Amino acid sequence: MKISVLQNILAANNQIATQTRLTLAEHLIPAINLISSPGAGKTAILERTLEALQGKTACGIIEGDIATTLDSERLSRFGFPIVQINTEPFGGDCHLSASAIQQALTQLPLNQIQLLFIENVGNLVCPAEFDIGETAKVIVLSLPEGEDKPLKYPLAFREAKVCLLNKMDLQGPLKTNINRILDHIRRVNPNLPVLQISAATGEGLEAWLSWLTKIST
Amino acid sequence: MKISVLQNILAANNQIATQTRLTLAEHLIPAINLISSPGAGKTAILERTLEALQGKTACGIIEGDIATTLDSERLSRFGFPIVQINTEPFGGDCHLSASAIQQALTQLPLNQIQLLFIENVGNLVCPAEFDIGETAKVIVLSLPEGEDKPLKYPLAFREAKVCLLNKMDLQGPLKTNINRILDHIRRVNPNLPVLQISAATGEGLEAWLSWLTKIST
């Protein structure tokens, strides 16, 4: 019973996601869907990314949060158009849905956007299950979350096109075994590229920017 | 449409949770429902807690994960009965449901248990929405997640009876402003007690153990 209900919701979602994918393709806009646990650094990575792309690439941003406009406020200084989605009125939805994105796109000047960033709700589970019409899901994993997370939350790592391993600057204090994390990622998705970065220090961001350039062309 | 479906699911869940609450009350077992983002330290806190309670309090543990038995394996050395729930067969469920707990309880020797710990799936959103028959929800927030999380994920902080602020040992490297976190917690739940702890160093655990003693009597 519950499963068939979920299948209906997913089918309706996927239909709208397909429409969104067509709309974005018409406007030649790649859409990056950033997924992670709360506090893994999605917004900090976006701050670094938008700063680097200012004056070079016309970006658009859709910010997903259950509540508050804190993240939009942090990103507004770069002057790119931003739409904030708060899922709280929808019962505190734990992920962005295709229909929320479809609504948000009507508020963005699509003719003037070359690259769209979508920051999903902080959640390592549900956002991975929903197609929102993106070009690529990007999974952000941060060192303090622990080495076992790819094994325990495999879907997000299977669905992603690239993994950003963030907060590399904390490797010392945390004594993180990076090889173990890489091994765990390979076990759930052997082909997933992993970029080791730190949004705090800027380490490794060139690789991420060049990945974005590749997916944009 | 979707909302009424969700209400039906929640109503069915709450009915089972009420049955569980009666069962636990008959056996005089307080049940602690641990909720947090992935990697905030729920399992590490449980390791410290079970170590301290060995030989004093007969504990039982229900471990919730989408996949793997990694956490059960970590906790098995303390000799307490453990049931691992993997939600992956249920579509990768992002939270423990009342019926999953009801099933798990049939696998535990309730007559020999004085205190039940339930480690929910790592997710700061959905587990807060589901009553599973617990005595108290406990929210674990770790410093690396950032100071804004209580505002962005308010429900978990509203539903909890106590907040464990974990990874205090990282305050130095992260330059975390603890007062700002405490202020943000107070804004969503002015009466929530906050215990500053570190599962890594053992700091602050006496306060947590004495909170457990209070709720157990």
β-sheet strand percentage of chain A: 15-25%
Major sheet: arrangement of strands of chain A? 3-2-4-1-5-6-7
Which architecture of chain A would the CATH scheme give at its second level? 3-Layer(aba) Sandwich
Instruction: Flag low-confidence runs of chain A.
Output: none
Helix and strand run of chain A = HEHEHEHEEHHEHHEH
Secondary structure elements and pairings:
The structure is a homodimer of 217-residue chains.
Chain A lengths: L1 H25 L4 E5 L6 H12 L5 E7 L4 H6 L6 E5 L11 H8 L9 E5 L16 E7 L6 H4 L1 H6 L2 E5 L4 H4 L3 H11 L5 E3 L8 H12 L1
Parallel strand pairs in A: 1-4, 1-5, 2-3, 2-4, 5-6, 6-7
Q: Can you describe what's shown?
A:
The structure is a homodimer of 217-residue chains. Chain A has 217 residues and is of the alpha/beta class. Chain A has one domain (2-216): P-loop containing nucleotide triphosphate hydrolases (Rossmann fold, 3-Layer(aba) Sandwich). Chain A has 9 helices and 7 strands; from the N terminus they run αβαβαβαββααβααβα. In chain A, strands 3-2-4-1-5-6-7 form a 7-stranded parallel sheet, sandwiched between helices. The radius of gyration of chain A is 17 Å and the shape is globular. Chain A starts with a helix and ends with a helix. The model of chain A has no long low-confidence stretch (mean pLDDT 93).
Observed structural traits:
7-stranded parallel β-sheet, Rossmann fold, 217 residues, homodimer, 9 helices, alpha/beta
Short account of what is shown:
Chain A is of the alpha/beta class.
